[in-house]
Amino acid sequence: MNLTDREQNGVVIIEPKGKIMGGPDASLLHDKLYEFIEQNKKKVIIDLSRVDWMNSTGLGILISGYTTLRNNDGELKLANVTEKIKSLLTITKLVSVFEAYDSVDDAIESFH
Amino acid sequence: MDKPIITGNTMIIPSNQEFLAEVDIFLEGILRGYGVDESRVADIAISVSELVNNAIHHAHHKDTQKTIAIEINKDKEDIVITITDQGTGFNPDDINDPLAEENLLKDTGRGLFIVKSLMDKVDFKITDKGTSVTITKSVK
């Protein structure tokens, strides 16, 4: 997995690409997320459009980022959730936790 | 052992997360060769990654000297995969419910639940010298 990131309208967008299954690649996403948290960023979107699938390690990284941001008056939201990831979020009831949007623009709009 | 060994449809890896991607490439290649559709390929790949991760973290406590074997077979319309570790065993019923309110926001504890949700059958053979988990997924 690799990832890119950008900022738009005061919102950080993290764009992982590939599979999030654990190991050094998953650490990339975790470390990038926490880099922004340490920079006191409050609005973060994970764009999942290029993620083939993730397992519970990936879900754990999302949850950890979500709760850490929330505890620091910030928010983490999801954009472009694929069908496979949506089914995992549903199976694990995490669909009730995360706000998910059909596009990055919609997710950015939700912060304002 | 410091790198994976492949014999037919079996891959043995050192117990180290750096080999997760190689397991995935090996597995998905075989599944596509069997003509498995992409959605099921993903479900099976997710499940195998969960079990390999469980072996690394829970069975082997990140001891990289231990090994994990992944054996892939097709039996009529079923894909049957066995993941074997060298740990001392566990009780699969002794796992917290990840859907319980108090566990929903924990960042671990969902792996086996996901495997049981995605696969048609999950069987455990547990000894104090190692555990084999066999997952079955119909592909008809």
In terms of topology, how is this protein built?
The complex is a heterodimer of chains A (112) and B (140).
Chain A: E1 2-8, E2 11-20, H1 23-38, E3 43-47, E4 51-54, H2 56-71, E5 75-79, H3 83-91, E6 100-101, H4 104-110
Parallel strand pairs in A: 2-3, 2-4, 3-5, 5-6
Antiparallel strand pairs in A: 1-2
Helix pairs in contact in A: 1-2
Chain B: E1 5-7, E2 10-14, H1 20-33, H2 38-59, E3 67-75, E4 78-84, H3 111-118, E5 121-127, E6 130-138
Antiparallel strand pairs in B: 1-2, 2-3, 3-4, 4-6, 5-6
Report what the structure shows.
The complex is a heterodimer of chains A (about 110) and B (about 140). Chain A is of the alpha/beta class. Chain A has one domain (about 1-110): Transcription Regulator spoIIAA, CATH 3.30.750. Helix content of chain A is about 45%, strand content about 30%. Chain A contains four helices and six strands. In chain A, a hairpin with a 2-residue loop joins strand 1 (about 1-10) and strand 2 (about 10-20). In chain A, helix 1 runs parallel beside helix 2. The longest helix of chain A has 16 residues, at about 25-40. The model of chain A has no long low-confidence stretch (mean pLDDT about 95). The mean pLDDT of chain B is about 95. Chain B has about 140 residues and is an alpha+beta fold. Chain B has one domain (about 5-140): Histidine kinase-like ATPase, C-terminal domain (Heat Shock Protein 90). In chain B, helix 1 runs antiparallel to helix 2. Chain B has three helices and six strands; from the N terminus they run E-E-H-H-E-E-H-E-E. The interface of A and B includes residues 92 and 94 of A.
